[in-house]
Amino acid sequence: MKEIVIISGKGGVGKSALTAALGTLLAEKHLVLLADTDVDAPNLHLAMDTRLTDFQEIAASDKAFIDYERCSGCMTCVETCRFSAIMAAAQPVMMPYSCEGCGACALTCPEQAIEVRPVVNGRINIFATSGLPLVAGELSIGGSSSGRLVDQVKRRARQEGEHCQAAILLVDGPPGIGCPVIAALKGADYALLVTEPSTSALHDLQRVAEVAGHFRMGMGLVINKADIHEKSRRTILAYAEEHGMDLLGEIPYDISVPKAIASGQPVVAAYPDAVSSRQISRIAATLLDAVTAVT
Amino acid sequence: MTAMTADLHSEVIKAFHRKEFTTPVVGITGGKGGVGKTTVAVNIACALADRGVRTALVDADVDGPNGAILLSVELANPVAVDITVPQIDEQRCNSCGDCVRACRLNALFMPRGKQPQLIGECNGCEACILVCEPGAISRGRKPVGMTYLSRIDGLSLYTGALIPGFEESSVVVQAVRERAFGDAAQFDLILIDTSPGAHCNVINALRGADTVLAVTEPTPFGIHDLELILKLLDLLDLGGSVVLNRADLPGDSRKVKTIAGQHGRGLIWEIGMDDLLARSYAAGVPVVREYPRAPSSKVFLQIAENIAAAYGI
User: Fold this and answer.
1) How many CB atoms within 10 Å of residue A216?
2) What architecture (CATH level 2) is domain B90-135?
3) Is B300 in CB contact (< 8 Å) with chain A?
4) Which of A90, A191, B176, B287 could form a disulfide with B280 if both were Cys (CB 3.0 to 4.6 A apart)?
5) Distance between CA atoms of A4 and A286, rounded to whole angstroms?
6) Which residue did the predictor score with more confidence, B252 or B113?
7) Distance from CA of A142 to the nearest CA of B (A)
């Protein structure tokens, strides 16, 4: 099974819409499995016809808990915590949102009043779509350790993939460059980088390409809304060439894409003859060649 | 999750937001990426600065900080953000393995018959240092990011930037927010622009905010993620209003209003497609300065006026 992760650095450049469209096209000839690792704002299930068939709660986050029966109010824990997660009041108050679950407070508490326990930080949703199943992570509101939840999503997706003997696992990645992105990239064969012609998007693309460069994987670039700013487009093309990044294709701005999103369908299904759909078709073929070439 | 939220009383939240100064703090977030958070933040900041309000803008999207790009300003006054990593003194270490057992990230590994080594991601919790009986572990420093302070036309821009390849975004978020908060006495208002999403980066950025603008667009993605971020804001006891950007994109603006209303956010600022906004974005000049009479500028100026009135500044 070849694992392709779609990332961009900057959010809102079209990762989910492109994942849904590419998945739909690749599934015409191959067994494709989809995964959504943008666990704090998962949208892939909205980009196509999906039906929730199963879900599983995940406890991939550790938090410290104070037993106030034992706590003497000495505040050693407050001094110990490197993450400012414990505030000194009449007794120490734990800020679950800042707690990293490192357990340093539990180690120094003279009363042994602190315990670190796993807490539910999200769930894995399994959606059925027309032909290709989707494994999607969903972080609980206020939950932490999104990277560890992404690890679980990928593990489950790989299990499902092996079970149904999928040829391709297509992973919709999170924005940014931090822990969930690194977790999404781990163990993948290929990173598909999406960008759009703007200085901000190029800046974020460069940062995420640097992260992906730490892993041994193939990398290809798609420029979305390629015709909105010619000067920025040229800068991106020059950057891609300078860094030996394969250009998989360009998609012009096309109102069919937001219209398809609004109707909850991939653009290639809703408007197969639209200019964007034709370009995405070409990108799917180029991507398949590029991924097959990765050993 | 229930175990965690159940004990989240308002006291905890109050302590969480507690700060040592009175300067109002306004957060700008949105859940979905690319909806225009930074554009909104930069334009409101400029509109306020141009009114004579001493304004700090904090770019806390440390994975992809773009505020400086939209303002065409150089990053200046760099300060490194680093975390503690264990440095093991081979002379003192007795290979007891306590540090390896204390590390919940499994970042330390002790090969048979050898001394422990740092092999994985360390988050700087110092648990290993705390348990080391012979005191063989000292604090080494590892840089994970930078903060910057740039000044431009009456505006102070604080930028946090994670070094690509590192995972400690929230440490950098905290550092840039604290740098600005440390200078709070110099300002009438602090604006904080967050990363997309609803995870620790966003939560850390909004710590200490008095009110929050949630930016979204009327697409199914924008609506879905708005609901997530509003649930988070409710949990963090943060009120505010909603900015509906690109209001004429295919979608459902009414649904945005319904969801905002369900979360006690009656005020919705609506920004339609605006060529002048797109043009100024590409040029790296805030639209309120380049085209103050553009339709989008009018909304940004209104929001700024509304904030100024709310805090009497």
Assistant:
1) 8
2) 2-Layer Sandwich (3.30)
3) no
4) B287
5) 13
6) B252
7) 6
Each as own residue / partner, the long-range contacts of residues A25-30 (CB below 8 Å, 24 or more positions apart, any chain) are: A25/A268, A25/A280, A25/A281, A25/A284, A26/A168, A26/A170, A26/A284, A26/A287, A26/A288, A27/A131, A27/A132, A30/A167, A30/A168, A30/A288
For the packed helices A230-242 and A199-213, what is the interaxial angle rounded to 10 degrees?
Answer: 20
Contact of A129 with A50, CB cutoff 8 Å? yes
| Predicted TM-score of the model (pTM) | 0.95
Suggest the residue from B178, B221, B233, B252 to mutate for an interface test with chain A (most A CBs closer than 10 A).
B221
Q: What is the mean pLDDT of residues B179-207?
A: 96
| Per-residue model confidence as pLDDT tens digits over A197-234 | 999 999 999 999 999 999 989 999 999 999 999 999 99
Q: Which fold has domain A61-119?
A: Alpha-Beta Plaits (3.30.70)
Instruction: Return the domain boundaries, chain A.
Output: 2-59+124-293, 61-119
B131 contacts in chain A (CB < 8 Å) = 107
Same fold, A2-59+124-293 and A61-119: no
A2-59+124-293 — its CATH code?
Answer: 3.40.50.300
Between chains, do B32 and A43 touch, taking CB under 8 Å as contact?
Answer: yes
Does residue B11 have a pLDDT over 90?
no
Say if B279 is an interface residue toward chain A (CB within 8 Å).
no
Task: Check pLDDT > 70 for residue B5.
Answer: no
pLDDT at A262: 97
Domain B2-80+159-311 has CATH 3.30.1230.20: no
A 4-23: CB under 8 A from B: 9-13, 16
pLDDT of residue B282: 87
Mean pLDDT over B155-178 rounds to: 96
Domain boundaries, given as residue ranges, for chain B: 2-80+159-311, 90-135
CB-CB contact of B27 with B211 (8 Å): yes
| C-alpha A89: how far from chain center | 38
Nearest CA to CA, how far is A87 from chain B (Å)? 7
CA angle A191, A192, A193 (to 5 degrees): 105
Query: Listing from the earlier edge strand, what are the strands of the sheet with B25-29?
Result: B79-88, B137-152, B155-162, B55-59, B189-193, B25-29, B211-216, B240-244, B268-270
Interface residue B159 vs chain A (CB under 8 A): no
**ipTM of the shown complex:** 0.94
Mean pLDDT of the B42-65 span: 98
Closest chain A C-alpha to B183 CA, distance in angstroms: 19
Query: Kindly report the CA angle at B62 between B157 and B232, in degrees rounded to 5?
Result: 100
For the stretch A140-195, pLDDT in tens is 999 989 999 999 999 999 999 999 999 999 999 999 999 999 999 999 999 999 99
Q: Spell out which residues of chain A touch residue B173, defining contact as CB-CB under 8 Å.
A: none
Return phi, psi of residue B77, to 5°: 50, 60
Tell me how far apart the alpha carbons of residues B142 and B227 are, in angstroms, rounded to a whole number.
38
At residue B103, the pLDDT reads: 96
Alpha carbon separation from A261 to A22, A115, A293, B251 (Å, rounded)? 14, 46, 32, 8
Amino acid at A174: P
